[in-house]
Amino acid sequence: MLLATPALVIAATSEQKFDDWIVSNTCSQNTNRLCKGYYKQPIFAELHGQNPADLPITITSDEGSFVSKGTSVFNGNVIAVQGDKIIYADKAEVVHNPGTGTLETITAIGNVKIMQPGLRVDGDKAIAYVATDRKVIENAVYRVYSRHARGNADTLVVNGNNKMDLEPATYTTCAPGSDAWRLQASETNFNKDTGRGQAWHARMYMQNIPVFYWPYVNFPIDKRRQTGFLQPDFQSSSTNGKTLILPFYWNMAPNYDGTIRTNYMTKRGFKFDTLWRYLTASSNGSINFDFLPNDRTYRVLREDALADPGFIASTKRDDVLRRLDLKNYNRRYRYTWKHSSQISSKLLFTVDYTNASDGNYLNDFITNWNYASPQASNIYALQTAGLQYSDFFGSLKANMEEYKSFHAVNGPASSSQQLRKIPEFNFSSATFNLPYNFNWLINAIATNFKPRLINGDPNIYNYGQRLYMRPALMYSLMEPGWFIQPRVQLNQVRYANLRPGVTIEGTLQHATIKTIPLYDIKTGLIFERPLEIKNTNLLQTLEPTVYYLYVPDQDQSYLPSFDTGINTFDYNQVFRDNSYSGYDRVAQANQIGLGLATKFFNELTGDEIAMFGVGQIRYLSPNIVPVFETNNLDKHWSPIALVGKVRIAPKYTVEANLVRDKTSTKTASLQLYYRQSPTRIFNFGYQLNRNPALDDLNGVNLSDIKQVVASAAWQITPPMRLLGKAGYDLQFHHATNILAGLEYHSCCTAIRFIWTKDWQQNLSNRQGQYVYSVGLRIIFKGFAGVGSVEDSYLAQAIPGYTAQD
What is the DSSP letter of 481? Predict the structure, then answer.
């Protein structure tokens, strides 16, 4: 039987010559490009489903002597082939049992090369014990092509096809001639069945300098999920001090696992972050639990706040709520459960629930790793569960929802206490076709609003029950080049059990109803023409659109406002039927929305290349001015809204929005995206959003937004990429966030360094401060199961960022 060696991860010293290593600077794969070369495998014979052990062994040499019982000797350019396995040697001795003639051993001597798919082993001598399927190779040097790995061992023992023992041995994924890192151990074994490697008395070397020692280490040798420690992280920040992060991955079963991150922060102490994931045939979900047994920084914060007489005596609502959320213990935690279960083909159950121990937790620890439900705010936490039924008629969802408010002592506080929806039933019907191009649908939402009452909160909240219904009857006539869509809607809200009640004609009532009809019609033309720009065939459309909306004037001032807001005016608002968000209000209207858009499409692919639009509303009744235009001096026309999106070339995309009246610009935004390649990206953004309301703290238009931000991830050489982000507040003249980083990727290592500076508003003393942090990560590719430095924080900070291999 031919010597068979399993494809397992091992290593080699840089002094060894690798005649199968091809130097190249034009590799297509990123890993090979970083390594400036690749291992070239030989071409093996096709087996066509045959078992290699059943195939005959063919031996050729310059000379030899063969005996059927005893020892056969072959000399000079010995080549032994069995199926897709090949042995090269200067000499081979093949021993058959003298009595039975059974093959017992094959000994290859001098310049031994053992090759099979995915693996090559070189050595001075190799002995195969056929009966026990045990092979011993002396002074072995080998590489595993699938792992881009190499190594050596004084003695290599193969037991069967899937297990290997080495004494002593090295392991690295670096290219030949480079030992940026290597693992060296007195004893190592590999098990292909489990996908694990084990090493005893293991030392990690970087450029021949020992940097770490393990009495015992267990590591993956393939890409299967395996239990074990992941690469550690180091961070430093002005709020947490120096932080060492040691992650541990627990592969409990194929369908559920866990990650435990142990953080030690010099200013706070220990913090444990956990993520548990599960998957079944009909459901999936994740659970997070973070815990600090004794947060020293929080203890100092509490002591300083309680020692402040002004804070203790303040009767302002925000200070009252901050005091209530300030806990008298140092144990801190946050937990999140996100779950989705497809109970049947029509029934879906979902949960998204987050809670924290105190008002400061979300502000102190903004999640930037794999959290079950990404943290969208440091003020609110979503708590919701729902059951949804869907079929031909539409969908019906029953859910309970709350945005729980948190009030940080040294940070922002929520402007209002959010009402809980306990419960809410939401029905959205399908669109049903009627004769003569008519359609109808109905949406209905029944909600029971309840406040989360907090002892000491001075506010009195309106709450009660609301039933919202909006049936709609539509007519749609669409022909090539034009369309017309009239619609009639009936908006009805019913309120019951209102507390404290509403006053109607001088009488306090706890129930009321309001029904308001809405009439609108939308029509437009679509002109098309072929166009050629720079040898590219395009299709241009010109689309004038007219939208008439009439809503009669009805007094709604006495109605409660549970979830009503004001929509920001933009191009899309020109064609909406309500300037309010939520369901408590419908804006009076008698107006015509006028819009003109032009679009450019690639005639071959159908991709949209560019879109430009301009829109404005003509008010037919001067006394009717929408709520978002209280400062508009022109009672006949709305501000003009412009929108544009252009893909100048495959690498450039520009998006812009502008809203302006006769005297000033209301909102403006500009976004530029440049994508030269996945490793060379640049983003620029400008945003202006005016709000005339004054902030109650200092009388400045604090809610106005006027900012610029730029970010980039730019590869300056194949192994090195610069990272950066800079944001600046043009209204208050300070930087909002700055990020500077460097990523270095070589064939077998990756290093990332990140420095950040973030502005944090401190409303307790009406000031702000910068929070600094530094992070460092070193990755040995092919070891500890980590091969990239992808980080959700960078992906969010730099749009378009992706990790390198």
Answer: T
